[in-house]
Amino acid sequence: MNEHVKTPAAGLYAALAKAQTEMGKAFKYSNNPHFKSKYADLGSVMDACLPALNKNGIAVLQPTHDEDGKMYVKTVLVHGESGEIAECRVPLIVAKNDMQGYGSAVTYARRYGLMSMAGIAPEDDDGNAAAKAAPPAKADARPIYAVLQADMRKHKSADDLLRWWKDPDVMDMKNHLPSDWLKNLKDEFVELGKSLREKDTAPTNEPEFT
Question: Rounded to two decimals, what is the model's pTM?
């Protein structure tokens, strides 16, 4: 599987990180008669990730294309606000030379391409139907923390840093962090704010960093 990102993609990464905290689980509802096992079909994968992606301004395209005589399915994530794009491609391996074989190969490639780009994995159903579309109680917060930390360190003045910290979108992202991670982020925010305040020459009515 080949992956490609058209940089810069900070806007796409931030939106994707937020979307991943809202994604559900791709449950294994379909049966594979050959291996006597269950798997997460394309519909289950789409149910798990598309609502969260679309809510955060990310569209998904999955066209087929021919390159050097080989067929692929591309999975393209497009961030509507910035126009930034990330994509991967999965080769089409057609078992039978007919439309049924082609359709099965396309569906297979779309399923794995979408799981790869969204960052989700198939899971066994725990029997709780209400949990099908619900996000996990404690999502993986590493991407969120990395985005917030990188954005915070970009600010060159204390007032700008304070406004960023109180931004509704930033506050929403902070709500997805575990309490100890949020404390670490706030500690760095306070230290950075004090350092920037010492360099400020213009008077301000903004509160001090505590």
Answer: 0.53
